[in-house]
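I hope you will forgive my troubling you with a question about protein structure. I set the record out below, with my sincere thanks for your time.
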Amino acid sequence: MSEEKSIGISSGVDPALDIERSKRVDPTMEKHSHDADEAMKVFDEMQGEAIELDESTNRRLLKIIDWHMMPIMCCIYGMNYLDKTTLSYASVMGIKDDLDLHGDQYQWLGSLFYFGYLAWEYPTNRLLQRLPLGKYSAACILIWGLILCCFAAVKNYSGAIAIRFMLGVFEAAVTPGFALLTSQWYTKQEQGSRVNIWFSFNGVGQILGGVVAYGIAVGAEKHGSAIDPWKIVFLVTGLLTIVLGFVFLWIIPDNQLNARWLKKEDRILAVARVRVNQQGIGNKHFKMYQVKEALLDPMTWAFFFYALIADIPNGGITNFFSQLIKSFGYDEKQSLILGVPGGAVEIVALLLNGWVGHITGQRILASLGGLVASIVGMLLIVALPLSNDVGRLIGYYLTQASPTPFVALLSLISSNVAGYTKKTTVAALYLIGYCAGNIIGPQTFRPKDGPRYVPAEITIIVCWGVCLFLLVGVWLWYRRENKRKTLFTARPEYVRLENQE
C-alpha cells in the first residue's frame, strides 16, 4: 500500500479525531466562518451549481498550470541553491585572503547562513500563511538577491557574517513556500513528481555556478578585472536572482482565485481539480489545535530528526565541495569546473526518483536508492588510495544523489499533512532540523584535518547509515496507518460530511 494514500489531518492522528471535530461544527455555518478554507468562496459563489470536470479538461488545466508555474519555480529554486553555495566557489577564488579569514572562520561563515534560516523559519512559515503567498515569496526572493549583491562590498569578516545571516533569513521562505504552492495547485498524485522537478534544479544551480565561476576565474586571469573575481560571482548571481524575482512576482498568484493567466471559469475548475486532496487551497486563520496535533504526531518528529541527521553531511559537502575536489589532486580552477557533473548527477537522481515514486506510489522506497549511492560514494572517497584521484572524484559525484529522501519527505509534507496551520508547522519543524544539520555540518570539516578531512567523511557515512533506518521506520508507519484508516472509513457508521475537505 502506498504512503500517498494517507488521509485526514495527519497520518499520525486517529482518523476518528477529524470526524468528531467536524460533528461539533454545523457544516452549513462552517463555510461562512473564518475557519473555512479559501476554496469555500468558490462553492459559495456557485450557489449549489454542479462543477463538471472531465478528464480532458483536467489535462488541459494541468498543462496550463505546469507551463506557468513550473519554469519560474525551477529557476528560482536553482538560484536558491546557487546563491547559498556561492561561498564555496569564492573559497578557491581568493575570498579567504581578501577578508583575512583564518582558523575556523570560513566554517562559521558556512554555518551562519543556517543560523539566519533557523531564526526565521517558524516566523516565515506563519507569514506564508497570513500574507498573500505569491507576493510574500516574491518579496523574499528580491531582498535575498539584493543582499547577495551586497556581498561584493564586504571588506572584513564581520561584514560577511551580517550578509550570510541575512541571506539565510530571506531564503528561509523558499522551500516551505514552494511546498505550499505545490500542495495548493497539484493533486496528491502529481505533487511528488513536481517537488522532485523543482528541487532537481539544485543540480542546475550547481552546474551554472561551476561554469560561471570557472569562466570568471579564467577570464580574470587572462584579461584582468576591475574588481576581484569572487566579487563578480556574487554580483552576477545576485542580479540574476533579482531579475527572476520580478518574473516570479508577475507570474505566481497567491492562489487559483487571482491567477491572471486563468480564465474566470478555469479558476473555479483549478480549485475543483485539487478538491480530491481534502486540504483546501489556503487558510489564513491560525488554529492552535492543529499546532498541538503537529507536536503530538510521531511523523513530525521522524521528519525533524531525518532532516537534522541527513543535513549534517549536506552542510559539510555544500560548503566544502570545491576544497574536497581540490584535495583529490586538482588545482583551484579545475575544482570549479569539476563540480559541474555533480549537479548533473543530482538532476538525474531526483528526476528518476520522482518518476519511479510516481509510477509505483512508493516515494520513500524509491528514494532509498539515492541514499545508498551516496554512502557508496563516500566509502570510495575514504577507502581509495590518494593516488586514485579519478575514483575518488567519481565517489564525490555519487554523493550528489543524497537529496532524494529529503525531497521525498518534503513531498509527503505537501501531500499527506492536511490543515493549513498544521502543514506550515510540520514544514517549519522539518526545515528547522534542516538548518540545525547544516549548521553542524561545516563544523565537522576541521582545519587541522585538511586537506583529507577523514573524520568529516566518516561522520557523513554514519549519518547516512542512521538515515536509512529512519526512512524504513517512516515507511512502516505509513503502511500501518493506511491499513488502519482504510478499515475505519469502510465501517458502516462512517459518514463523510458535505464539503469536509
